[in-house]
Design brief:
Blueprint (H helix, E strand, L loop, with lengths): L7 H21 L4 E5 L8 E6 L5 E5 L3 E6 L4 E7 L8 E7 L5 E6 L9 E5 L6 E6 L9 E3 L5 E5 L4 E5 L5 E6 L20 E6 L5 E6 L4 E6 L9 E5 L6 E6 L5 E5 L4 E5 L5 E6 L6 E6 L8 E6 L2 H6 L7 E6 L9
Antiparallel strand pairs: 1-24, 2-3, 3-4, 4-5, 6-7, 7-8, 8-9, 10-11, 11-12, 12-13, 14-15, 15-16, 16-17, 18-19, 19-20, 20-21, 22-23, 23-24
């Protein structure tokens, strides 16, 4: 071992660099495995997932169902069916609120009848209610909670982030051209413009991180209370084109579900990208949840949305929840 002279800070930095490089090499050789599989013929396609404080996972499905998943046994039950409304409407982002209830968005590509709502669901009874009514022209997607209980919710079709207060009243929190999808259909990831999508807090909730689907862009938004938060582009790359949900681990690494490329990637604070896993068994990965139970804190759970393969041929679709071992636990999803 090379002797390092100098301050303890230099020694610790050298150790950290060595461990970091080893972690990257180790992680790149690991492939995800299925925890549970869903039925594509029943449109059980998990667009989003989340976890509570006790290690339970929840997934929101294209067909309006919410599944409760026990990762230790590899079993799931349907705890609610949300009346999403018009044909073509679907559930999107889901999170567990500070009150222990589930908050889940719904969206539709058709503005009439309306399908853009935020729902509040009691997982113990299956009772769901419309919590917020949103612009029917939009496609509300992913959400996080602020400390005061208000919700920030992305809309990739309208290129904005909503703020929804504790009474369910919605207003535009932030809108910006950087949130917009591609204007040229040939440049889009899904055939229609899709912009700001995934959303996650850093450790101290001082910065909000969001992704833009069509451009493979990850951005940081400081939330210092200013009326016009600055938006910082961390990275924009073809490697991330089709990026959907994101999550952040305790080291500050951003995990990206690159839906249309069937890959999982990480982004560090300098914008460096590392592809962790790609190809089968990944099938349209769309969302993450880090393990929150006693024995799975170093596990990343992945929602296989499988929407593209489902639309091509349902027999080839592989929707479900996968797991991937990681070296650093994740931050809470709220």
């Amino acid at each position: 071992m090379t002797k390092i002279r100098g301050s303890w800070g230099v020694v610790f930095l050298a150790i950290a660099v060595t461990v970091g490089l080893g972690a990257r090499a180790w992680a790149a050789g690991v492939q995800p495995t299925f925890v549970v599989t869903f039925d594509p013929t029943a449109a059980q396609l998990p667009e989003s997932m989340t976890s509570d404080d006790h290690g339970t996972l929840y997934a929101s499905n294209l067909n309006g169902q919410i599944q409760k998943i026990d990762p230790s046994s590899g079993t799931f039950t349907t705890v609610a069916t949300v009346p999403v409304g018009p044909l073509g409407a679907a559930l999107t982002g889901i999170k567990v609120g500070p009150d222990g209830l589930l908050y889940v968005a719904s969206a539709s590509f058709s503005p009439s009848p309306a399908g853009a709502f935020l729902w509040r669901v009691d997982p113990s009874t299956g009772v769901s209610q419309q919590f917020a009514t949103l612009d029917p022209r939009g496609f509300p997607n992913d959400l996080v909670f602020q400390d005061d209980g208000t919700i920030l919710l992305t809309d990739p079709a309208l290129a904005l982030i909503y703020k929804i207060d504790t009474a369910g009243d919605a207003s535009v929190w932030l809108s910006d051209p950087l949130f917009a999808g591609a204007s040229n259909p040939s440049d889009t990831a899904f055939g229609v413009p899709f912009g700001v999508d995934g959303i996650a807090w850093d450790r101290n909730k001082r910065n909000l991180y969001v992704s833009t689907v069509d451009f493979g862009r990850v951005m940081r938004i400081p939330t210092d209370g200013s009326c016009a938060p600055a938006i910082h582009v961390i990275v924009e790359s073809p490697t991330l084109k089709g990026i959907d949900g994101i999550a952040i681990d305790r080291a500050g690494t951003i995990w990206a579900a690159v839906n249309t490329q069937n890959q999982i990637a990480t982004v560090d604070g300098r914008g460096n990208i590392l592809v962790i896993a790609q190809g089968s068994p990944l099938d349209g990965p769309s969302s993450f949840a880090f393990g929150s139970g006693r024995h799975d804190k170093q596990t990343l759970y992945i929602a296989n949305f499988a929407i593209t393969s489902f639309q091509t041929d349902p027999a080839t679709a592989h929707p479900g929840i996968l797991s991937l071992p990681v070296l650093v636990p994740g931050l809470p999803l709220r």
